[in-house]
Amino acid sequence: DQQVKQNSPSLSVQEGRISILNCDYTNSMFDYFLWYKKYPAEGPTFLISISSIKDKNEDGRFTVFLNKSAKHLSLHIVPSQPGDSAVYFCAATGGSGNTPLVFGKGTRLSVIA
Amino acid sequence: NAGVTQTPKFRVLKTGQSMTLLCAQDMNHEYMYWYRQDPGMGLRLIHYSVGEGTTAKGEVPDGYNVSRLKKQNFLLGLESAAPSQTSVYFCASSSVRTGRDEQYFGPGTRLTVT
């Protein structure tokens, strides 16, 4: 049973427009959420995170929104650039003890120039 | 500062052969992890370690063994490779100081078992 779900395998967006990547989770014990970005033939790299005590975290063009009641988070990229084309993974953890990250299956974003 | 490195980058094995994947990190991180990535499956945790000399099972541990004899190294072993173990393997590490959650990944090892 998937605890972290990214229901859109792929997304295409025009350069300069907003990209919105979505993630849902089922485990109510999760209290820390992260987004990772992965280019082909490279390892994932950390992008942005959010704690459950917040509902928004912003870092430059990247903003993550958390809706705890809906168990839903989203990553907004504004404006989207061709270099943002990559696979984005959502991850979650209980945030305490030795609970490892649980990853979603990823969404492939293509930003079209 | 090389971060997280993995050896080898590519490997082809025949069914039944054994091999060891080596992960090394130079960031003095306490935690280390092994994942596998398969098409449409995301990243699945195989084993992890919260410190030198300790290991724990992840989501998909069967067919793999690990060892963490030194803080900077985490080895993943396949004793008898099977075609189902064809995958891309990623090692990661994180620090208890900056947050166990922000993991740093290596470049991956692409393994094919024929």
Q: What is the topological layout?
A:
The complex is a heterodimer of chains A (113) and B (114).
Chain A: E1 4-5, E2 10-14, E3 19-25, E4 32-38, E5 45-51, E6 56-59, E7 62-67, E8 72-77, E9 86-93, E10 102-103, E11 107-112
Parallel strand pairs in A: 2-11
Antiparallel strand pairs in A: 1-3, 3-8, 4-5, 4-9, 6-7, 7-8, 9-10, 9-11
Chain B: E1 4-7, E2 10-13, E3 19-25, E4 31-38, E5 42-51, E6 54-57, E7 65-67, E8 73-78, E9 87-95, E10 99-105, E11 109-113
Parallel strand pairs in B: 2-11
Antiparallel strand pairs in B: 1-3, 3-8, 4-5, 4-9, 5-6, 7-8, 9-10, 9-11
Round the Cα radius of gyration of chain A to an integer and report it. 13 Å
Order of helices and strands of chain B: EEEEEEEEEEE
The proportion of residues in beta strands of chain B is: over 45%
Count of DSSP strands of chain A:
11
> SSE order of chain A in H/E notation?
EEEEEEEEEEE
State the end-to-end distance of chain A. Answer: 38 Å
Number of helix segments of chain B?
Answer: 0
Major β-sheet annotation of chain A: 6 strands, mixed
Instruction: Determine the mean pLDDT of chain B.
Output: 93
In whole angstroms, how far apart are the ends of chain B?
Answer: 36 Å
Low-confidence stretches of chain A: none
Structural write-up:
The complex is a heterodimer of chains A (113) and B (114). Chain A is mostly beta strands. In chain A, strands 2, 4, 5, 9, 10 and 11 form a 6-stranded mixed sheet that branches. A 5-stranded antiparallel sheet of chain A has the order 1-3-8-7-6, with no helix packed on it. Chain A contains no helices and 11 strands. The model of chain A has no long low-confidence stretch (mean pLDDT 94). Chain B is an all-beta fold. Chain B has strands at 4-7, 10-13, 19-25, 31-38, 42-51, 54-57, 65-67, 73-78, 87-95, 99-105, 109-113. In chain B, a hairpin with a 2-residue loop joins strand 5 and strand 6. Chain B is globular and about 40 Å long. Chain B starts with a strand and ends with a strand. The mean pLDDT of chain B is 93. The chains are: A mainly beta (113), B mainly beta (114). The A-B interface holds A 6, 9, 32, 34, 36, 41-46, 49, 89, 91, 93, 95, 98, 100-101, 103-106 and B 4, 33, 35, 40-45, 48, 50, 56, 58, 90, 92, 100-108.
